[in-house]
Please model this.
Amino acid sequence: MDSDNLIEIDSVSSFIEQVKKLRNEEIENGSSKELYFRGQETEFWDIEPSIFRNNMLSIEHKLMQVPLQKVPAEFKDFSTAFDIMTKYQHYGMCTRLLDLTTNPLVALYFACKMHGEEEYEMEEGIVEKEPYGVIYFTNKYYSSLPSEQAVQIVSALSTYNLSSENTISEILEKLKQNKIIDNDTKERWLQTKHRQEFIDIIQNNYMVVPTYTNERLKKQSGVFLLASLFLFKLGTDINDSIISKTKGTLRTEFDDKYFYVSGDNKEEILKELDIYNINEATLFPELEHQLNHIRNTYETSARPVEEFVKYKEVYEPSKKSVYLYGEDLNDYIVNDFERIVKGVVTHDDMESIKNIIQKNFGVDWYKRESVLSGMRMDILGYYLLKKKIDKNIALKQTKQIMSSLLNVVDEFTYSKAEDGE
Model:
């Protein structure tokens, strides 16, 4: 990480203050350009659209064309290659679009998404930790619309197989056939003195405000950086000049300065963003994300539940009822608790388990299944949540404690019956 240019963020408020400074600097410099932000959950990812990864650029024309043949009804309302590309992007297809936002808090959310621990080589050796999140920003662009000619040209080139029919004359002819340029424009760009106009178009990137055809784009204040980066090789004459698809990093399209969030602060910042209504449910309105957000929200309040045991009626006609003084039984258990659970409960846990059992004492508690069930769950919860031991061991421990407790109830009952009480 470039330590000279990074700005550390440890809270939502610190980020907002820094963004305010950026905007004030823009105003002071007399700039009317918008600030665009991109959040990434790790500092070691490059800034590149998905089509530039894993050699997918070589089959871009197939990825752009085949879905139109397979499911044409999905795209019947789309009139441009760019609009089709935005739908592909929405559903996870590789495209030359890079997601950005005009809302800095949305970018902060994506920078704080948990990635999972990675190995880092530190002075003390290899350390596993959550990566830094980063937020890049740029003020280099005036926004374009999908209907603008340059955007349409770059989008159309993404659908062409430039491993063949890739001379400038062939490409300009196809653009004319696709009604993106007219014949006069084609002839003009074939002239040496005007050729540079076309080359500049296909070697620049464009910040495009899409048609908000889905709720996700609206919620995320989404815009796209349309990557161009087409290579031009001049031949002996215009007909030998070749255009080909190439990839490259888009880091230079962003300011040298950038924000970063320590992996240790990500979770806390996500909780803060939730207060501002920036979370998975608001940014991703699809049902799966709504349900995922609800699950994650309530997961922290989950507590262990009792294992299922099938009820079996036990009839013991020879057993006679014996009236017990509840306080006598309770005192008997508390005073002799160490003997009752000897070999089952460790010395460190003795007082905690005794307090749990005492807390559940009530009238005829030993006869009431609801009370006994609550007692079991409290003991199990103690071992799982506080002692953090294995679930199977915790269940076994709980079962042994409850068995010892009920055995002493029988023991006390028998002793009272023998005494004639």
The mean pLDDT is 89. Residues 216 and 284 are 6 Å apart (CA to CA). The radius of gyration is 34 Å. The first helix runs from residue 12 to 28.
